[in-house]
């Protein structure tokens, strides 16, 4: 009864694996990445991936950065958030000030940040969407930041709409805040999906370590990183940005190995597959794959924009290879996007419908992610199925429909 993963266009996660990736996963099925003494070459491979990403994200001295693999961006965000909390706490204690009320400021974030805030006792100050904006705006920051702000999270590839938050402008607003009131607030970029997209197809966008205030970045290897499910990455600008107190030295696996992670035992195959993909595809290979996805998303957007029932929210240009749209006249359409989700599900497509975050909850949107393995041919089939479903719903209105969210998106 599971869906066909290739027709799941609600997820960012990799659903494509070539034969070499399958063989590497098979060969490494018995490797535990935490046993760094037992599997030193896997540890070396993990380290090389970290430095390749640091370099991709323009760390000033990529060989001096630090970072690690994780199970995904959620764990990576927790580690990034914890590092911010400890840096803040150390600074406050040194100044003889209270450390009772840390807060973190962000726009519409993925649920992992709600978890981070609750699990680790930090107040989440989620700035509501204002006007037509889809993300955090620089001019909103000053009203939400104070001396207890451990950091600002900027999202590269907002979960709800797939657009990028303006990291450079947010950093500029924080520079002004430092000048005006002396608060020096670091930025963590949650680049779960954008971290493997922007460097390849939007190379001129400034969002990464090229901005001094960006101290850490996470990304999901298993999203646009193209690796199989189960790997994420977090990288700090320099070793100074990761407090020593969070690193544990472990000797009971042989040797004396540093570890910074929420988990202990974990499969190594995804890390090895990530390294293989980075080497196998190279910069040019990733660029071609992501550009093809972006072209397909834009093709789909052009087709959807021609349907009078639909109004585009994001047309696949300038951010993730995806589209996001809403009903042009939701009150008089005779059906809801939830009905449309149900209808296309009959053809096997999984498309999530959901509300935008506060203060735009009245807007229901749908989002379609184009990733490796979702071809132009599939996009043509999908577009036809959406058109046919809308025609059917217009001819057979469902004014009393109680259709609601049937499954979640990530
Ligand atoms: C997907 C996503 C996450 C969570 O990542 P996982 O790899 O699924 O744990 C966090 N933040 C953003 C912006 C995401 O898109």
Automatic annotation (TrEMBL):
Its cofactor is pyridoxal 5'-phosphate. This is Glutamate decarboxylase. Belongs to the group II decarboxylase family. The modification N6-(pyridoxal phosphate)lysine is found at residue 223. It comes from Caballeronia sordidicola (Burkholderia sordidicola). GO terms for molecular function: glutamate decarboxylase activity; pyridoxal phosphate binding. GO terms for cellular component: cytosol. It catalyses: L-glutamate + H(+) = 4-aminobutanoate + CO2. Its EC number is 4.1.1.15. Keywords: Decarboxylase, Lyase, Pyridoxal phosphate. Transmembrane segments: none annotated. The lineage of its organism: Bacteria, Pseudomonadati, Pseudomonadota, Betaproteobacteria, Burkholderiales. It comes from the Bacteria. The keyword Manganese does not apply. It is an enzyme of class 4 (lyase). GO terms for biological process: L-glutamate catabolic process.
């Amino acid at each position: 009864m599971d869906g066909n993963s290739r027709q799941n266009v609600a997820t960012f996660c990799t659903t494509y694996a070539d034969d070499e990736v399958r063989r590497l996963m098979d060969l490494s099925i018995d490797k535990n990445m935490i046993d760094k003494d037992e599997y030193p070459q896997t540890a070396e491979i993990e380290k090389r991936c970290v430095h390749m990403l640091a370099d991709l994200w323009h760390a000033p001295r990529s060989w001096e950065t630090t970072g690690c693999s994780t199970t995904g961006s959620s764990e990576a965000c927790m580690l990034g958030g914890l590092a911010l909390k400890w840096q803040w706490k150390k600074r406050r204690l040194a100044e003889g000030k209270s450390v009772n009320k840390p807060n973190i400021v962000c726009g519409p974030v993925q649920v992992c940040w709600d978890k981070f805030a609750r699990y680790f006792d930090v107040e989440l100050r989620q700035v509501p969407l204002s006007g037509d904006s889809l993300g955090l705006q620089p001019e909103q920051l000053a009203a939400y930041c104070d001396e207890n702000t451990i950091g600002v999270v900027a999202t590269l590839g907002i979960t709800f709409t797939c657009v990028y938050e303006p990291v450079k402008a947010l950093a500029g607003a924080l520079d002004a805040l430092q000048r005006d009131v002396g608060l020096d607030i670091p930025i963590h970029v949650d680049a779960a999906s954008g971290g493997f997209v922007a460097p390849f197809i939007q190379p001129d966008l400034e969002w990464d370590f090229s901005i001094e205030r960006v101290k850490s970045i996470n990304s999901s290897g298993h999203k646009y990183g193209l690796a199989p499910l189960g790997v994420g990455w977090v990288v700090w600008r320099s070793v100074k940005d990761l407090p020593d107190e969070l690193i544990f030295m472990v000797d009971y696996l042989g040797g004396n190995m540093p570890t910074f992670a929420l988990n202990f035992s974990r499969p190594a195959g995804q890390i090895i597959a990530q390294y293989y993909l980075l080497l196998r595809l190279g910069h040019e290979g990733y660029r071609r794959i992501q550009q093809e996805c972006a072209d397909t998303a834009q093709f789909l957007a052009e087709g959807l924009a021609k349907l009078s029932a639909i109004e585009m929210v994001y047309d696949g240009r300038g951010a993730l290879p995806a589209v996001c749209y809403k009903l042009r006249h939701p009150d008089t359409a005779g059906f809801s996007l939830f009905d449309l989700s149900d209808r296309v599900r009959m053809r096997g497509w999984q498309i999530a419908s959901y509300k935008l975050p506060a203060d735009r909850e009245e807007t229901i949107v749908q989002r379609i992610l184009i990733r490796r393995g979702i071809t132009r041919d599939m996009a043509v089939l999908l577009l036809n199925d959406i058109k046919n479903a809308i025609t059917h719903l217009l001819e057979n209105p469902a004014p009393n429909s109680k259709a609601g969210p049937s499954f979640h998106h990530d």
